[in-house]
């Protein structure tokens, strides 16, 4: 459960961390010190994969690993990244300095300080030629950086939208956040500005709304650019399942798409809703609430993550180990791992000591 704290409400795993930064359009370094939720990072951890019964199906032999997407998982061997299939076979040799998930058949990789895109056989579909940005393909386009400016390429590497932006994010729900002349706006896939408004800050669209800054205040707009929620709280996040976290007096709660408070701010940290449940920290322990704020699973865990494929990784307070619980809060895979990550395509990354 390697985590990177990048926003005030919750720590993120490596995959989500990279996606978060790619979504903001910010430049960044990946050589950061991760947070292990109270655990010290050391080198005698190896990563493998388990199935939903808890059986190890790919032996822990990797220095780091991402979960499976599109039938491939990025793994690190001797400091370099490659890819394996769901049988654990190395289908792309470990040769890259960094690697992202496959999306729409291609994955962004770094080689010798430049980013390019490979297909599932490991062949470059778009040669490494871009400055580090780590944007996945979305809606057939990827955001790349050239000479300090961002633009969008198709899967042949041809620019569809020229690199003219100071910052840019990947496309989300048909629109992309871009920055020009120190102002943020949204563009469609042709490069046309989606609506004649600009903002002091912005996040990509999620669940039909995007968080923006106007006169120093965060609010939420719809896809016409209309301000539908005028923000009176601290924090700016992504809507998911119709709700978004907000902060008041250093505590987190939730509002709905009308701006009404549906869960009063009372939690130290919160996650995102998944299938109607959300992990929250209360009095130093983690549990799960429903969309009405009812505590469905009591706060008894040292840490907990969002549900994925019906189960969630949660750290046991007694032995400090990670296991997986069901939606009733019962361990279905006993807490035995040094680290554990969410399930994806029926498999989950786990870390064990060697």
Features of this protein?
single chain; mainly beta; 4-stranded antiparallel sheet; flat; disordered N terminus
What does this molecule look like?
The protein has about 350 residues and is mostly beta strands. Helix content is about 5%, strand content about 50%. It has one helix at about 15-25; strands spanning about 5, 10, 45-50, 55-60, 65, 75, 80-85, 90-95, 100-105, 105-110, 115-120, 125-130, 140-145, 150-155, 160-165, 165-170, 175-180, 185, 200, 210-215, 215-220, 225-230, 245-250, 250-255, 260-265, 270, 280, 285-290, 295-305, 310-315, 320-325, 330-335, 340-345, 345-354. Strands 26-27-28-29-30-31-32 form a 7-stranded antiparallel sheet, with no helix packed on it. It has a 4-stranded antiparallel sheet with strand order 4-3-34-33, with no helix packed on it. It has a 4-stranded antiparallel sheet with strand order 5-6-7-8, with no helix packed on it. Strand 24 and strand 25 form a beta hairpin. The longest helix is centred in the N-terminal third of the chain and has 11 residues, at about 15-25. It is flat and about 55 Å long.
How are the secondary structure elements laid out?
Layout (H helix, E strand, L loop, with lengths): L3 E2 L5 E2 L1 H11 L20 E6 L5 E7 L1 E2 L7 E5 L2 E5 L5 E7 L1 E6 L2 E6 L2 E5 L5 E7 L11 E5 L2 E5 L5 E7 L1 E2 L7 E5 L2 E5 L13 E2 L7 E5 L2 E5 L5 E4 L12 E6 L2 E6 L4 E7 L1 E2 L7 E5 L2 E5 L5 E10 L7 E5 L5 E4 L5 E7 L1 E6 L2 E7 L1
Antiparallel strand pairs: 1-2, 3-4, 3-34, 5-6, 6-7, 7-8, 9-10, 10-11, 11-12, 13-14, 14-15, 16-17, 17-18, 19-20, 20-21, 21-22, 23-24, 24-25, 26-27, 27-28, 28-29, 29-30, 30-31, 31-32, 33-34
């Amino acid at each position: 459960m390697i985590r990177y704290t990048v926003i005030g409400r919750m720590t993120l795993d490596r995959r989500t961390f990279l996606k978060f930064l790619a979504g903001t359009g910010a430049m960044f370094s990946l050589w950061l010190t991760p947070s292990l939720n109270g655990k010290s990072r050391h080198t005698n951890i190896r990563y493998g994969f388990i199935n939903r019964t808890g059986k190890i199906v790919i032996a822990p032999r990797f220095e780091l690993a991402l979960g499976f997407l599109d039938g491939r998982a990025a793994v690190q061997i001797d400091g370099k990244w490659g890819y394996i299939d769901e049988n654990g076979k190395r289908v792309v040799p470990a040769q890259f300095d960094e690697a992202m998930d496959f999306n729409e058949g291609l994955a962004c990789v770094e080689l010798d300080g430049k980013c390019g895109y490979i297909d599932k056989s490991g062949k470059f579909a778009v040669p490494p030629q871009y400055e580090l940005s780590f944007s996945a393909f979305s809606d057939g386009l990827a955001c790349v950086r050239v000479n300090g400016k961002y633009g969008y390429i198709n899967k042949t590497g041809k620019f569809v939208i020229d690199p003219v932006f100071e910052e840019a994010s990947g496309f989300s729900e048909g629109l992309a956040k871009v920055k020009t002349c120190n102002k943020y706006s949204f563009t469609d896939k042709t490069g046309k500005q989606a609506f004649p408004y600009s903002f002091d800050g912005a996040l990509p669209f999620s669940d039909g709304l995007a968080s923006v800054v106007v006169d120093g205040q965060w609010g939420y707009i719809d896809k016409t650019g209309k301000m539908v929620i005028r923000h009176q709280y601290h924090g700016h996040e992504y809507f998911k399942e119709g709700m978004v976290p907000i902060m008041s007096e250093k505590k987190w709660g939730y509002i709905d798409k009308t701006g009404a408070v549906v869960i009063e701010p009372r939690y130290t940290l919160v996650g995102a809703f998944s299938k109607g449940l959300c992990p929250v920290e209360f009095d130093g322990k983690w549990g799960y609430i429903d969309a009405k704020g009812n505590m469905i699973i009591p706060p008894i865990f040292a840490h907990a993550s969002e549900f994925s494929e019906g189960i969630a990784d949660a750290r046991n307070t007694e032995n400090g180990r990670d296991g997986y619980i069901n939606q009733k809060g019962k361990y279905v895979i006993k807490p035995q791992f040094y680290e554990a990550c969410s399930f994806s395509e029926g498999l989950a990354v786990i870390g064990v000591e060697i």
